[in-house]
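Question: Now follow the chain.
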Amino acid sequence: KNWQLNKPAVTANTVFERIKEVHNSLQPAVKNILAKGEVPVSMGGDCCMAIAVLSALQQNGISPIVLWLDAHGDFNTDEITISGFLAGMALAMISGRGDQQLLENAGAKNIPDTDIILSDARDLDPAEKELIESSRLHWFKNIRDVRSFNFNNRPLFIHFDVDYVAAQEFPAILFPVENGPRIPQIAD
């Protein structure tokens, strides 16, 4: 594969503007890959990078089902977060909850809850769990259960956070969480 390194000059002063610079340089790369009829694969530094990829897909007329594979829900908002960690809010933002500045900066549209599948999410803050349970997104606690979802031949956007995998498989990840699926389960 011809991997392309996205390494923009990040010069802005605020966090949101710095992220916007990274997103603005990633989106054209995704669009170029789509224009060639290929499937884009993006490896990013945190879960907010999914917003840039989603925006590029949408700007190319693709309305995907989002499959979010993560040990964490990333479904916090400014009002309920314990840590204040922005990447822990990415899926909530994508669904239209919380601060929408990153989506607006990237030109992304919200995805309806019914078009979002959250698999696993075994490490949740209490209010985050309540928000997920009160939403209409599909929360599967086991990767095998994703097979039961009717995708209706819709395009699929897969967000895969390595902390999703059992911690013993990837001992050097930044936010390890016990009891995740093993690689053979995920591959199956």
Remarks:
- Strands lie at 65-72, 116-123, 138-140, 156-160.
- The chain has a mean pLDDT of 94.
- The chain is about 30% helix and 15% strand.
